[in-house]
Amino acid sequence: MLLPRILSAIVMAFLFIYAVFFLDTFAFSVSMAGVVVLAAWEWARLSGAKGQVGRIGFAAFVAMLCYVSSVYQLLTLSLYISPILWCLALYWVIRYPTPLVWQHTYARLVFGVLVMVSTWAALVVLKQSADFVIWVLLLMGLIWGADSGAYFAGRAFGKRKLARFVSPGKSWEGVIGGIILTQVGVAFFCQWQAFSVLEWFLLALVALLTTAVSVLGDLTESLFKRHESLKDSSHLIPGHGGVMDRVDSLTAAAPVYVLFLLLSGWL
User: Fold this and answer.
1) Model confidence over 14-38: pLDDT tens digits?
2) Is the pLDDT of residue 1 over 70?
3) Which residues pair with 237 in a beta bridge?
4) What distances in angstroms separate CA 46 from CA 50, 101, 163, 228, 229, one per listed residue?
5) pLDDT by residue (tens digit) across 118-142?
6) Cβ distance 122 to 254 under 8 Å?
C-alpha cells in the first residue's frame, strides 16, 4: 500500500494548496462542504448506522444545515458550541469503557451533526478574513506539528499511556512533544509577524488549546471506531482509509482555533 499511500498524499496536498491559494470564498465554501459531507457519510457508519440510505440521508442533512447556517448568518454562533462538544468528548474518553450515552447511535449522530457543521463554519469564517492564508497555514501547522511531534517524541520517550483503552499507541510524552514543537513554531511565527509580547502570549494560549483539542479529536474518532470494531472510517482514500481518518483532528481543532482567534480580535 506504500505507492497508493504516497500518490494519495500528493493528490491531497495538491488539492489543499489549490483550495487555499486559488479558490474564492464561494468555491472554497463549496469544496469544504464536499469534504464535510463525505466525512459525515463516514460518521454515520462510526455512529452505528448500518444501511447506505441512512448514511446518505445523514450526509444530506449535514449539507442542508451547512447551507442554512450560511443563509441565516449562523456561522459564528455555531462556533460557540464547539467547546461544549469537546468537553463532552473529553469526558467520554476519560470514562471509556464505562457505558455512557454516546454508545447510542442517535447520540453519536447528533454529536456528529454539530461537529461537522461547526467545522465547516470555522473554515468559512477563516476564509472570510483578510489574512486567511496566514491563519489557515498556521492552523494546519499546529495540527501537523502536534501530530509529528507526538509521533517522534512518543517513539523516543513514550512510556505513560494517554488513553490506554481508547488508543494504546498514544502517550503523554508524545502529547508533550507535540506541544513543545507547536510552541516553537508559534515563537517563530510571532517573530515573523513582529507580534508584541502580549500577542505572543495570547497566540501561544490559542495554540496550546488548539493542539490539545486536536489530540482529542483523534481520540474521539478512535473511541467510536473501537466501539464499532472498525479499523478505518471508510476506504475512500487509497492507503489512508477514509476522509475522517485524515480530518479527525481538524474537526476538533478548527472550530476552537477560529473561535479563539475571533475572541482575541485577530479575525
Assistant:
1) 999 999 999 999 999 999 999 999 9
2) no
3) 241
4) 9, 15, 19, 6, 9
5) 999 999 999 999 999 999 999 999 9
6) yes
Torsion sign (Cα): 163, 106, 64, 263: negative
Give me the chain's average pLDDT, please: 92
pTM of the model: 0.94
Helix (H, G, I), strand (E, B) or coil at 11: helix
| Residue 98 CA to its chain's centroid (Å) | 25
Residue owning grid cell 468537553: 87
b/e 95-130 (16+ beta carbons within 10 angstroms → b): ebeeeeebbebeebbebbbbbbbbbbbbbbbbbebe
Buried b (16+ CB within 10 A) or exposed e, 199-237: ebebbbebbebbbbbbbbbbbbbbbbbebeebeebbebb
- Mind listing the pLDDT tens digit for each residue in 152-166? 999 999 889 998 889
User: 4: how many CB neighbours lie within 10 A of its CB?
Assistant: 12
**Residue 111 cell numbers, joined:** 454529536
CB atoms closer than 10 angstroms to residue 50? 10
Please identify which residue in the block is written with the cell numbers 488549546: 209
User: What span, in angstroms and rounded, lies between the C-alpha atoms of 15 and 146?
Assistant: 22
Positive or negative, the Cα torsion across 43, 21, 8, 167? negative
pLDDT at 7: 85
